[in-house]
């Protein structure tokens, strides 16, 4: 581990400092035993994910439900212990920490949740909810805590009148701002947003995204934006990773991903977004739904829904390989896949 | 030819007498075989409109209307028995949370069979066969296995397909779909929208499609009605609404939906929020958030009187003084 830390420091000196480094992270959930004679099944939620996020960068994490993106977020936040692999945040390996050390680490990474009404205790006022975060981490005196709460609220554009309100008295948009203010209380370096706008109306969504944009710049935050909405990801992220059944299938610089997507799954996602946006028959649609993460298909995990799948795809799992500068794809037929998107773009 | 569904001057209110209504003078018609979408933010009254048609409003709601007619039948005056008949096989509904709508204690097969047994009077055996047909018809693989499954064993997409199979079992004349794809993944959303489009063509049914997402609606709807704070503010064909929106609220919604950027790179937002409409008793409800009030120098008329729904020859109508003014001077 010591060598890793040294490596981080040299990287920092050269100006490119990785804030979050994931190395082959695996998270399985073991299911209860169904037979005496077989080993219990496991859900392969996250299956060998390696990623780097530069300090100040925004990574968009895209995938369907069940792809493992929220599990990955919880592993990074040390809310779940990974089955194997390491997570390094700001140069500290957080994978095997004591309770106390983990508590300190949690201050550096905070989370904004999808449904703000579900993320707040309905019986506590907003002030109480927020103060309890500071109390738990033993921050400040009572008066200092009250000041910090009010400061955090003003940072997201809410006045002190919200301190005594209950979550039920707020709209979704207001409460999502409270959620963001609460995440900022402990001065985190990393902010993970799990579908922060998908429960909100279009008009409120833009406001929350603007707020996140501003806060990211002001606080020089590193962000992970989990979303199924590619428009949102395109707006906020500078790099995008696409997950499918626990694996990263494509990761690239934002513009490369949106203009030169090379994995059939990414292309299907882009096409689905286009189709629901205009009257337009997309050429690629992923058939059916993702298979069960308990028994993922052999070979490439996308082969059951892929229009390009061959026998090789059904037998041999493709590796994540570099296809251009800062562009990796997990597909045997990525060159042909690229053609699908071009054909699609020329359609009216 | 009269519309399949006619809603005339529908007003719904809750609470004390004189409290501002949640639906205020809504009139809409859905022609036979047409897909009409109602679009608006939460609280605009779009779901309330759908529930009124089915007479399934929450307790305490007071409904007043010039009339709601389905295929000529007066729904307002209909008794519970007539309503049950209509809800049974002539009008069906789809909801946002398909898994919550399914009974967790009964198999899929039993639930899909229920309306067949009750309304079509099929025998147990015949109903079971028909269930398999219906399930495979909505694109469910291995229908025999799925029929034996319980709601918690299904993914959201499959559960919504089951709901569609159930809704279409009686070959309804009208399908009311309230945000049927909001909880689904994008790739599955496209599949479900396509399925609804196919079934509508096959059965020639009308669809009342409710959504907050203009993008979703645009691929399916023939016409779009935009609602704001309990009022219809614009109605037109899908092309008219998307290409030549007249009401400033519709224009703002489109900008939000496409994540349009301002000059400084930030995303376009509509200032203020819906609650500002509550205090308005006589003027235009969108005025406190309206981007054109100032530039059109119409502040006085917008403040004094709510604009009527008015339109031009092509059938597109909107509720805005600025638009009326432009049309007059043109």
Automatic annotation (TrEMBL), chain B:
Swiss-Prot/TrEMBL keywords: ATP-binding, Cell membrane, Membrane, Nucleotide-binding, Transport
Signal sequence region: none
Membrane topology type: Peripheral membrane protein
One GO molecular-function entry: ATP binding
Protein name, per record: ABC transporter ATP-binding protein
Gene3D superfamilies membership: P-loop containing nucleotide triphosphate hydrolases (3.40.50.300)
Domain ABC transporter: 5-254
UniProt main location, coarse: membrane
Family statement: Belongs to the ABC transporter superfamily.
A Pfam family per the record: ABC_tran
Localization terms from the record: Cell membrane
Keyword Chloroplast in annotation: no
The keyword Nucleotide-binding appears for this protein: yes
